[in-house]
Amino acid sequence: MLVMVEVVQLVISYLRERQVTLDFMVELGIVATLREIVLRGVTDLPWQQVSALTVFVLALGAPLRFGDLL
């Protein structure tokens, strides 16, 4: 459900402005990744995969936090 809300928000933003901001795309990636983690259960994943997912979410979150500093 959360992924669909993000996709609809992304489509609405595109239809209004005819461009997509990086923020919406990154948020969609984070929500989709966290959804998969919740569905599979973090206790069922090997530690290597949990570490890789943590780095992935942090790498996606960095542009949201530090992207407007330039």
Structure characterization notes:
This protein is mainly α and 70 residues long. The chain has one domain. It has 3 helices and no strands. It has helices at residues 2-17, 22-40, 47-66. It starts with a helix and ends with a helix. The mean pLDDT is 82.
List the SSEs and their pairings.
Elements: H1 2-17, H2 22-40, H3 47-66
Helix pairs in contact: 1-2, 2-3
Provide a short characterization of the protein structure.
The chain is an all-alpha fold and 70 residues long.
What integer value in Å does the Rg equal? 14 Å
Span between termini: 34 Å
Strand percent estimate: under 5%
Mean pLDDT value: 82
Largest sheet, described in full?
none
Amount of helix = over 70%
Which parts are unreliable, with pLDDT below 50 for 5 consecutive residues or more? none
How many strand segments? 0
Give the count of structural domains: 1
Q: Helix/strand-derived class?
A: mainly alpha
* Individual helix count: 3
Shape: flat
Element-by-element helix/strand order? HHH
Features:
3 helices, single chain, 79% helix
